[in-house]
Amino acid sequence: MGLEKIRRIDENRLEVPVDYKAGMRTKGIIYLNRHLEEELEVQSVEQVANVATLPGIVGASLAMPDIHTGYGFSIGGVAGFDIKEGIISPGGVGYDINCGVSLLRSKLTKKELTNSIKDLVMTLYTEIPSGVGSKGKIRLTSEDLKKVLRNGARWAVSEGYGTPADLERIESVGCLDGADPNLISQKAYERGRSQQATLGSGNHFLEIQYVDEIYDEKVANILGLYQDQITVMIHTGSRGFGHQVCTDFIEVMEKASRKYAIDLPDKELSCAPFSSPEGQDYFSAMKAAANFAWANRLCIIHWTREAFQKALKVSPNQLGMGIIYDVAHNIAKIEEHIVNGIKMKLIVHRKGATRAFPPNHPELPEAYRSIGQPVLIPGDMGRASYVLIGTEKGMAETLGSTCHGAGRLMSRHQAIRLAKGRAIWREMEDKGIIVKSAGRETLAEEMSEAYKDISDVVEVVHNAGISTKVARLKPLGVIKG
Amino acid sequence: MNFEIIDISGDIGLRAYGSSLREAFINVGLGMYSLITNIEKIQCKQNIIVALSSESVESLLVNYLNELIFHFDAYGFIGCMIEIAEFSDKKINVKICGDYFDPDIHSRGLLIKAATYHNLKIDKEGDLFTTEVIFDI
């Protein structure tokens, strides 16, 4: 089996035909141009095909242009399943449940930070726990943690982290209802206890950026974005808590797959019928982890605001650091979609993919109804990140979904080898980017060359029309775990 | 120590060897710890016991590593010596000696968050046992 069976549909899409491998119920569609196709891994295509074999899949098995090999689903994978006939799979959500991105605006401009950026980066690094073995500033009892799991970002607001106005600008208002804390293992509680409000490690980050280019003035205006404005992007998820929930449920789902006689091409695709007790239990536990992540990002937002006030000696009002939006890119949700002219309720899995709803969608905050959902796409620490907006075409073609990031090009060791003898922090500083990281090799692993160019990825979704460009943001200061 | 890194673009994996499956399990555990920090700087101060049973040797391996990850991620416990007192294809009793991670003393490497079934391999060739595991980080 190889890539020769794949057919190009148009400049931005590839088809994985239904006869690519035995058992496929539908075709696969990968959003990819010819340039990015050169990096396409056979195993990731295999994973798109594997998802197409799962019971109850509606429409195609989709993948976004940041596709690469994942566990079960590929990264960049999107698939909707009928809520009556279909399955739910932890492999379609990922280990870091509700890993996602927040973007804050400000009233500051790039010029105003010239002399204070170093102090600001150091203050943020001190105030926001990050890296291996770091402990959060908040210690939670099991009872506290249950409140986090039920209420998500609402819990953070009730504790004084963030404001009610913040909630409106978070996907799903920062909480999925129906999370049952009793379905969570003791181990997940133990891992979650000291990890609430921590950034984590690996590709997670907090970045001070400026608006470098605006592509859509009208939308940028409504989002409150303008040229040279300072923004802050935060990328983190549900930390060890979400990983434990996923690890626990892969075992449960492995047994469930056998019980319900679901033929699996890969153990990481273990799943259960959505309507089964196992399926419902996972969905509820996944919601708890998603809520943990939304609380996490809002606490970090709160400390980011405090760090800016402290380092720049300005008032919250002078800062004006409101949330532009907060998106989840590892999650499964019940959504209504029109497929082949029929309105259907689906359990949509997005694994390394971002929801991108069109204008007038009822789930959007009032302020964004006329423009559509903001989509936040982080790039690597040296190049750029993007703000996009959801479209009708995306709603029709990709279940209202788009890409989530750049995707790695190199393994961590390749990157470390390439960085040998180089001071990545100094190279970054020469480019005007101040970086601070906890890990001994994090900067080498995370250097720009290790990633695909985010602009290539964004070009595909923009040209395909499944979400369109609003603004490009460039880094000034980066905190890595 | 008898292990090597499997280089993949997203995460990281380990290939560990042993003259018995028991030894390969010990080596993959130590290999995983050495991705997190330099374990030569970890002193043998405390013991933890991990006892597990699973339906297959594959899930035994994944569950064992996830148990070590849990003890690190929840409590900061990191091992430098592993003994496996009881070992069968479905049951394992492991004693791990180590210390609690202190970021001021111990170097910070990769934050390993889960062992996966992705491309999992347990092989025997002649007298050499090999395990391959990919980790989510």
Structure description:
The complex is a heterodimer of chains A (481) and B (137). With 481 residues, chain A is α+β, with helices and mostly antiparallel strands. Helices cover 33% and strands 24% of the residues of chain A. Chain A has 16 helices and 19 strands. Chain A has helices at 34-37, 42-51, 117-127, 142-151, 153-158, 164-168, 186-193, 217-223, 239-259, 277-312, 316-319, 392-397, 412-419, 424-430, 442-445, 454-464; strands at 7-10, 13-16, 28-31, 57-68, 75-82, 87-88, 100-104, 205-214, 230-236, 272-273, 323-328, 330-339, 342-351, 354-355, 374-377, 385-390, 401-402, 434-437, 467-480. In chain A, strands 7, 8, 9, 11, 15, 16, 18 and 19 form an eight-stranded mixed beta sheet that branches. Chain B is α+β, with helices and mostly antiparallel strands. Chain B has one domain: 3-Layer(bab) Sandwich (Archease, Possible Chaperone, Chain: A, domain 1), CATH 3.55.10.10. In chain B, strands 1, 2, 6, 7 and 8 form a five-stranded antiparallel beta sheet that branches. A three-stranded antiparallel beta sheet of chain B has the order 3-5-4, covered by helices on one side. Chain B is globular, with a radius of gyration of 14 Å. The two termini of chain B are 22 Å apart.
Q: CA-to-CA gap between the ends of chain B?
A: 22 Å
CATH fold name of chain B, please? Archease, Possible Chaperone, Chain: A, domain 1
CATH topology of chain A: tRNA-splicing ligase RtcB
**What string gives the helices and strands of chain B in order?**
EEHEHEEEEE
Give average pLDDT of chain A, whole number.
Answer: 96
Determine the strand fraction of chain A and express it as a percent band: 15-25%
Q: What is the CATH class of chain B?
A: Alpha Beta
Radius of gyration of chain B: 14 Å
Mean pLDDT of chain B: 95
Instruction: Domain count of chain B, please report it.
Output: 1
Rg of chain A over CA atoms, rounded to whole Å, is 21 Å
Any idea of the CATH class of chain A? Answer: Alpha Beta
The chain pair with the largest interface is: A-B, 45 and 34 residues
Q: Number of DSSP strands of chain A?
A: 19
Number of domains of chain A: 1
Q: Sum up the overall morphology of chain A in one term.
A: globular
Q: Give the structural class of chain A.
A: alpha+beta
Poorly predicted runs of chain B: none
